[in-house]
Amino acid sequence: MMLLCSRVLEESVAKKKESKIPAETLELYEKLIATRPEIERKGDVHPYTSVHGHMFTYLDQSGVLGIRLAHDEVDPFLKKYKTTLFETYGVVKKDWVAVPASLLLKTRELQKYLDRSYEFTKRLKPK
Fold first, then answer.
1. Predicted pLDDT of residue 4
2. Which of 74, 62, 54, 73 is nearest to 125 (CA)?
3. 118 Cα distance to chain centroid
4. Closest Cα to residue 104, out of 34, 32, 45?
5. What is the SS3 assignment for 126?
6. Among the residues of 44-106, which ranges form H helices?
7. Which of 109, 84, 120 is nearest to 28 (CA)?
8. Confidence check: pLDDT of 79 > 70
9. What is the pLDDT of residue 11?
10. The whole model's pTM is what?
């Protein structure tokens, strides 16, 4: 019985999910998050940030970064960067934008949206 339990434990550890996010993309995400020391990057396989129980950034397994913005900031962002609303697991998130890969490379430019996202989300009613 002990041997069986040990084997099951080994198999579950061996099957631990691994991120499919390209290393370069993950590095850029972490560089962005590091611009705000008060923001904690969470999630081993599915990196995200949250405040008061509300997520405000999410890096999906394909390497697309989604950022939550205030409603009045979504359309200007979509037009300026010629992008779309963020979709994850087949669900289109109405207050989230998909960050184009070209913008993810520009940490300083993207940082202002991270700042806005954090400040907006911080004002939401805590979960």
1. 45
2. 54
3. 12
4. 32
5. coil
6. 71-81, 101-104
7. 109
8. yes
9. 52
10. 0.85
